[in-house]
Amino acid sequence: MKSMASKQAYSKIFEVEKPVIGYARFGRVLKFNKYLFMLQLTLLVVVFEFLVIFFLEDYFKALSDITRKILEGSYTASYKFLSFKLEYSIPHGRLPTLQESFIYLLVSSLSLLFLISRFNPLSKYISAWLIYIAFVYFVSSFYFVFFLDSFPYTERDFAVLYILQQTGVFLFIPILLALSLSLFTFSWLNLLLNAITIALSLMYSSVFGGLRYIVFAYTLKSFSYIHMPAMFFLFGPLIDFIYIVSFYSLCLYMTIKLLQRRQEAFYQWGF
Amino acid sequence: MGVLIFFLKTYMVFLMLVLLLYIIRHYTFTLNRAFGKQRLYYQDILDEDLPTVSVLVPMHNEEKVARHILDLLVASDYPKEKLEIIPINDHSTDRTKEILEEYAQKYPFIKPLHRYGDLPRGKQNGLNDALKIAKGEVIIVYDADYLPPKGQIRTLAIAFKDPQVGAVMGRVVPINAEKNLLTRLLDIERSGGYQVDQQARYNLNLIPQYGGTVGGFRKSTVIELGGFDSRILAEDTELTYKMYLNGYKVAYANIAECYEEAPEDWNVRARQLRRWSRGHNQVMFKYFIPTILSKKLNLWQKIDGLLLLAIYMQPFLIFLGLLDSLLLFFLGEMEITSSYLFLLFMFAHNSFGNFAPFFEIGTALVLDGSKEKVFLLPLMFLEFIFNIIYASLGFFDALIDLITKRTVSWQKTERFRNA
After folding, report:
1. Is the confidence at residue A261, as pLDDT, over 80?
2. Long-range contacts of range A77-82, CB-CB < 8 Å, 24 or more positions apart?
3. A182, A183, A255, A257, best to mutate vs chain B, most B CBs in 10 Å
4. Residue B94 contacts by C-beta under 8 Å, 6 or more apart in sequence?
5. pLDDT at A119 over 60
6. Which pLDDT does position B44 carry in this prediction?
7. Distance between CA atoms of B317 and B307, rounded to whole angstroms?
8. How far, in Å, CA of B8 to CA of B99, rounded?
9. Residue contact A179–B359, C-beta within 8 A
10. So what's the pLDDT on residue A263?
11. Is B182 helix (H, G, I), strand (E, B) or coil?
12. Which residue in chain A is spatially nearest to B41 when comparing CA positions?
C-alpha cells in the first residue's frame, strides 16, 4: 500500500502534468449574456435606423448634386417617400435602336448556346453566372426587338426605383447585421465591434450605392435602356449582399482573434 | 393581363413568405446550437454487451480509396467477434474486386458482396442485397471515400441501446478542404449543416437526418419497414422519414466525426448536387402528404419535416421567382419588383446561399474555432446561380420520375485521392 506522502506526491505530479482540457467542439456552446444580447440588438437597430432615417434626405441631396456636376444634361426632380422628400438628378436616357437590340439579341443567344454546349471549357460556377447574365440580356434584347414602343419606363422611373431600392438596402443593413452579430456576447468589446461593422457597412453602401447610381445613369444616357434589367437583376441587391457578408465575416474574424487567447472567454460546455 | 399580374405578384409574396420561414427556422437553430442546452448523445454509455454490427461499404470502381477505408475498419477497436465488414462491389470494372478478395483472404470478418450481371446498379439496390446476408443487429454504412476513426463504430452502435432509436448519424468533415475553392466552400457548408443544423434539430427533438454514410440503422426495423425503395436515389432521406413516420427516431452524434473526400471538381459537384436534389425531391413527392397526416409526429416535427422535405425545391422556387420578377419588370410593375427583388436576393442568399444562411455557417465556424474560414463566407455567392441551376435540374428529374415511373440509374461520385 502506498504511503499517504507518496499518494500526495503522485496526485501533485498528476495535477501539475494534467493538460488543460479544452472544450471539445462537439459539445461546446458559446457563452451567452442575454442582457448584452438584447442591449446590442436594440441599440444597434434603433441607433443605426435612426441615423439612416436622419441622413436619408441629405444623402440623396448630396448624390443629386454630385450627379448633376458629373453628368452633363442632368435635370433635378424629387420623389416623395412617406414623409421624406428625396431629391435626384438624372440625364435623359434613350431607347436602343433596332440594330443595337438585334446585336445584343444575337450575342446573348450565341453566348447562351455556347455556355450550355459541351464545348464550353469554363468552370461550371463561372458558366452558371455567365448563363444568368446572358439570359437577362437575351430577355431584355428580345423585348426591345419586338416591343420597343411598349417599354414602360423612363430615366425618371429608374431614378425613383433606384432610390427605393437603395433606401431598402440602408434600412436592411442594421437589421440584418444586428441580428447576426448580436449573438456574440463575450464582452462589451462585441458591442463596439458590431457597431463599427454596421457603421462601416453603411458607409461603404452609401459610397458604393452612389457610384453605382452615377454609372447606371451614365449607362442609360450613353448606352440605352437595354441595360436597365441588368442594373436591377445583376448589379443590384445581389452585389450588396456580397459586401454586407464581407463586413460580417471581418467582424467575426476580429471577434475570434481578439478573444482566442482566452478560450474560456467564449466557450462553455453545453450539457 | 390584370389576372396575370395579380398571379405574378401573389407568387412573389408567397416566395418571400417561404424564404422568410426558412430564415426564421435557421435563426432558431443557430440560437439553439450556440447557447441552448445541448442534448446528450449516448457516448457515455459504457456497456460490454455491444450489439453485433455489419459495416456496409457500397463501392463502384473504388480502387483509389478501397484500401484506405478497409485498413481503417480493420483497425477498429470494435470486438471482432461482433463485427463483420461487407464491402458491396457494385458492378466494378476496375481492380476493386481483386482488392476486396485480397482483404477477404487476410481477414475472415471481411465478406465482400459482388454484384454483377443483371442485378440493378445503385446504392439502394446494393444495400437491399447486403441486408439479406448481413448478420449484424446493427448496420453501419460508410461510403468508400470515408476514413472512419478507430472507435467510431462503437460510438455509433451504442445508440441502439435505446429501443426508440431506428437510425444514427455522425458528422461529416472534408479531409481535402484545403484543396481548392470548391472544397473550401463545401467544408464550411458541412460545418454549418452538421455543427449547427443537425445538432439543433437533435436538441429540439425535430427531424435530424440520417445521411446515408457515417451512420447506421437497426436491421430488423429497416427490414420490417420494407427495405429501400429501388426507385429512390436518396435512400438516406427516405429512411429518415420512414423511421419518423413509424415512431422511431434518428440520433445525431456530433462527436462521431468522420473524414470524407469532398468533390474537387465543379463538374463532379454539379452531378452530385443534381443527384441529391433528384433523390431528395423524389422523397418529397412520396412523403409530403404522409408527413402532414402522420399521427406519430408532433406539430413541430411536422413543420420541420415539411421544410426539410422541401429544401431542394427551394432553388427551383427561387428560379421561378427570378423569372417572375423579370416578367413583372417588363410588364411595368417594377415598383413591386424593385422592392421584392431586393428582398428576394437578400432572403434567397440568406436561406439558400449555400444551403445554410451565412449567420448559421458563421456561428458554426466560431464553435469550431476556425477563424480564417470566415473569410470564405462572402464567396458563397459564387455558388448561388450554380446551386439554382443544378438543384432545379434535379427537381425536374424527380418530377419526370414521378410522372413516367421510369427506372433510375445511379451516378457515382468521382474520387480524387491517389490510390
Report:
1. no
2. A77/A156, A77/A159, A79/A159, A79/A160, A79/A163, A81/A163, A81/A164, A81/A167
3. A183
4. B61, B62, B63
5. yes
6. 82
7. 13
8. 58
9. yes
10. 58
11. helix
12. A27
* Partner residue opposite B345 with nearest CB, options A238, A249, A252: A238
Longest Cα–Cα distance in chain A = 103
Q: Which helix (H) or strand (E) holds A87?
A: strand A84-91
**Distance, CA of B281 to CA of B398 (rounded, Å):** 6
CB contact under 8 A, B366 and A180: no
Could you state, in order of their start, the residue ranges of all structural domains in chain A?
Answer: 31-95+151-269
Q: What is the pLDDT of residue A17?
A: 55
User: How many pairs of residues across A and B have Cβ atoms under 8 Å apart?
Assistant: 168
Q: What is the dihedral of CA A146, A148, A150, A156, to 10 degrees?
A: 150
User: What is the pTM for the complete model shown?
Assistant: 0.91
Taking phi over 0 as left and psi of -120 to 50 as alpha, with beta for the rest, A79 belongs to beta
H helical segments located in A117-187: 124-146, 155-181
* pLDDT tens track for A142-192: 999 999 999 999 999 999 999 988 998 999 899 999 999 999 998 888 999
Residue B44: all three cell numbers together: 457515455
Select from B254, B265, B334, B351 the residue whose CB has the most chain A CBs within 10 Å, as the one to mutate to test that interface: B334
| Rounded distance between C-alpha atoms, residue B15 and residue B21, angstroms | 10
What is the spatial distance between Cα A202 and Cα A170, in angstroms, rounded to a whole number? 7
Q: In one letter, which amino acid is B137?
A: E
B281 and A CB contact within 8 Å:
no
Q: Element (H or E) spanning A38, and its range?
A: helix A34-70
B298 in contact with chain A, both atoms CB, cutoff 8 A: no
Orientation of helix A124-146 relative to helix A98-116, angle to 10°: 150
Q: Where does the pLDDT of residue B253 fall: very low under 50, low under 70, confident under 90, or very high at 90 and above?
A: very high
Q: How many residues does chain B have?
A: 419
Burial zone of A10 (CB within 10 Å; 0-12 exposed, 13-18 middle, 19+ buried)? exposed
Nearest by CB to residue A252, choosing from B38, B182, B366, is B366
Is B255 in Cβ contact with A24 (below 8 Å)?
A: yes
Query: For A269, phi and psi rounded to 5 degrees?
Result: -70, 145
Q: Best residue in B366, B381, B388 to probe A by mutation, most A CBs within 10 Å?
A: B366
State residue B177 phi and psi, 5-degree precision.
-55, -35
β-pairing, A267-269 vs A28-30, is antiparallel
pLDDT score of A8: 58
Q: Is B38 in contact with A180 (Cβ distance < 8 A)?
A: no
Per CB-CB distance under 8 Å, the chain A contacts of B342 are: 165, 168-169, 172, 236-237
- Provide, as residue numbers in chain B, all residues whose Cβ is less than 8 Å from the Cβ of A261: none
- Tell me, rounded to whole angstroms, the distance of Cα B22 from its chain centroid: 18
Which of B255, B267, B345 is opposite residue A124, by nearest beta carbon?
B267
Q: How confident is the model at residue B101 (pLDDT cuts 50, 70, 90)?
A: very high
Copy the grid coordinates of residue B407: 427506372
Global ipTM: 0.89
DSSP label at B191? I
CA angle B183, B184, B188 (to 5 degrees): 115
